[in-house]
Structure formats: C-alpha cells, structure tokens
Amino acid sequence: MLVLAWALAVTGLPDCLSITGGALVIPANVTEIPDNKYEGCYEITSLTFEANSNLTTIGEKAFKDTKIAGALEIPANVEIIKKQAFLDTDISSLTFEANSNLNTIGKETFHIPTLVGALEIPANVVTIEEDAFYETAITSLTFASGSKLETIGVQSFGECQQLTGPIQIPANVVTIKNDAFYNTAITGLTFEINSGLETIEDSAFESAESLTGPVVIPSSVTTIGLQSFRKTAITSIDFPESVASFGYSVFKECLNLSRVIVRGNLSLDSDNLDRLILSLCDNSNNQICVEGNGTGAAAIFDNFNYQSYGDCELAACTPTPSPTANPTAQPTYDNSPVPPPETKNDGTWVMLGPMLGFLGVSIGFSLYLLV
Length: 371
Prior knowledge:
Blueprint: H1 2-11, E1 23-26, E2 32-33, E3 46-49, E4 57-58, E5 69-74, E6 80-81, E7 90-96, E8 104-105, E9 116-121, E10 127-128, E11 137-143, E12 151-152, E13 164-169, E14 175-176, E15 185-191, E16 199-200, E17 212-216, E18 223-224, E19 233-239, E20 245-246, E21 259-262, H2 270-281, E22 288-291, H3 295-305, E23 312-316, E24 350-354
Parallel strand pairs: 1-3, 2-4, 4-6, 5-7, 6-8, 8-10, 9-11, 10-12, 12-14, 13-15, 14-16, 16-18, 17-19, 18-20, 19-21, 21-22
Antiparallel strand pairs: 22-24, 23-24
Helix pairs in contact: 2-3
C-alpha cells in the first residue's frame, strides 16, 4: 500500500511535453519531485505549487536548465532541496512559506545570477551546501529567529556582490567554510549570543571590502583560516583565548585595522604566533594596537622579540575600557635602547605597528612597556 501511494504521488506530475502555456503547477498530493524530472524542459516558464502542498523532496537537477522565471515560493513541507535543483534557471526572487520544514539547501541549488532582493533562510535549515547561492544578486541576508543552521558551505554566498548590510551569524553555526562570503558587499559582522562557532575557514570573508567596524570573534572559536579577513575594512578584531590556529595572511591588506584585542591567556605555538604577527605587520599604513591583560598579548611580544619582521615595531599604549572605544593615548617613539619584554598579568596593554626612526638612523625594533 505504501509503495502504491508513493507511485500515485509521483505519477501526479505531468510530463514535460504535456505542459502547455509554460506554467507548471505541482499538485498538492505530490510528495517528491524525482531527480532530473524536468531537467532541460524549456517548455516550463513558471512554477507554482498548489495550496496545502505535501511535497517534501525536490530532487537533484529537478528543474535544472529550464526557463522558469519570476518569483518562486517553496512550500512549507519541503525538507530537502537537492543539488542543482534550480541551477540555470531565471528565477528572480525566492521565498519560503511560513513554518518551513526545510532542512538542507543543496549544492548549487540557487546558483542563479538573476536571483535578486532580500533572502531569509528558514529557521529549520541545518546545512547550506557548497555554492548554494553563489553569484546571485541578492541584496540582503537574514536568518529566521531560532535558526538551527550549523554549516555555511563553501562559497555558499561567495561572489554575491550586491549582498550588503550587516550579517549576524546564528548561534548554532559551527563552521563557516572556505569563501563563504568571499567578495560580497556586507558592511558589518556580528555573532548571536551563546555562539557555538568553532571554525572560520580560509578566505571566509576575504575581499568583503565594505566590511567595516569592530568584529568580536566568539569565545568558542578555535581556528581562523588563512586570509579569512583579508582585504576587509574592519577597524578592530577581538579574539578569545580559545583560538589555537591562525592561518597565513588573516589580516593582510586590512588597511583600516588599528586595534586587536587579545582576550585572556591565548596559547599559540611559535608558528601560529608568527603567522598572526606577520599578518598584522602587513598593514603598513597603520599603527596597530594589540591589547590584552593576560599572557596572550605578552606571548606575542615574546615571539616578536626572537623573530625578524622587517620594519614592523612594538610600542605600548594605555588600556581602554571597551573593544569599540578608541585608544586613550597614543605612544611616543624614540631610538633609545630598551630592555627585553616581560610577561605581564596585571593589565599591561601593548601596541604593534610600523614605525620609522629618526632621519638618517636605520629602522630597528623598539619595545616600550607602560605599567
């Protein structure tokens, strides 16, 4: 009986050649649209679903390479949209019925350059797969209240160059994968309270050149991948002691970055410290204040003292009360010899930045401590 019921539901779908006038309406009793069902069916120019749809699955490449255009609303009972389901269509807007059960948005599902406007991801979505919205023209992105999202896939919103405004990452997200927001126009980045984020992968926000203001990394993050914030306009970064791994060039070409807050007793091995310092030093237009009252900031200086970082130098600045406040004092510089750094646990704050010596004196390293 179950097999028969399933067969009837599937056979409720019209064949491509029987579609007249370009409009395809999916009957309410259909529960699944099979893989490749309408792939390459140029006869379809619009797609709607009958009210009270029982549809739960939209199969792989189900509507790929059709002429579907205009608005599309996904029925509430749909749980999975498989990969490339709507690839190479001309859909212009996308919404989801209220109380959506959608769990998975498959790879390249909505890789549609004509898709524009605001997009809200339903609360029940757990996974957004690779390239799901790659190169769309969406202009804003939000996540429904109570979001269960755990994974933002590789390039899932990459090259969405019209995507602007602030983005708030839901608390359940564990991984932001490679290039997830690469070359977007987002202007701000925050994380919901009680965030469980663990990994920001390579180039996750690279070349988001309008991304500005402070960014506070959640206390659960352990890995910040290479070039993850490269060529952004962030002004400060605040990261926790939980971070154990920094990739190369995380902050390369962040020419507005002037402040780094190191929370607690950050413990990085010499390789990771080296990568962090090299990244910070690659912002030659700025003096970058590195602040911290635990052993983490002191460890940066200890590592700095035993390495060579070209023209990059260390100096001290006074502490400030808030990660978003401006430093309360600017350091002064001279070329006189100074003693080696000491580990401080009493609220010492430090500044990292490029500095030039007096005219005719070669550039060197200098360290100043304010206690």
